Amino acid sequence: MVLNFLKPTYCVQSVYDLSVDELKKNGIKAVLTDLDNTLLAWNNPEGTPELHEWLKETKASGIDVIVVSNNTWDRVKKAVGGLDVDYVAWSLKPLPRGILKVLHDRDLNKDDVLMVGDQMLTDVWASHLAGVPSVLVKRLIESDMWQTWLNRFIENQAKKMIYKKDGPVFYDSFEKAVQAKED
């Protein structure tokens, strides 16, 4: 199908559903994640207690969390300042530039990482172009930054086409998403 490049490898409710045990079981060494509405709600720059706990557990287990964002360096630096995570800004998603930079700089294989994001047109497409598994999450809040409205409109049309052919996407735990993919 023409839209296969927009189909995520996995779908989970949120980045917090990526448990350390399941990540390790699947050989994941780094979680690459979008910033706005994936890791942080764009209007909540401090993040939630749940986010801070997930980051603490993930990092303590030896799994890196790296933000791959289309935002400016200043914006991303400010947003992740209190999170103690590395980042790549101006990644130009859907181009794979940011993802490939992380793979190269950290000497990671494509199967060692997951790219997590809330948008098919940027995050999922970029992961396909980079050859890494993608995880589509529900956006943290329904409202988006003003720049995102066109992407959301196009994405909704693409989802309708994908769902018509393949059925709806179910957001689940990572363990169940991996199992469903294997079945």
UniProtKB/TrEMBL annotation:
Record protein name field: YqeG family HAD IIIA-type phosphatase
Domain of life per record: Bacteria
Database matches in Pfam families: HAD_2 (PF13419)
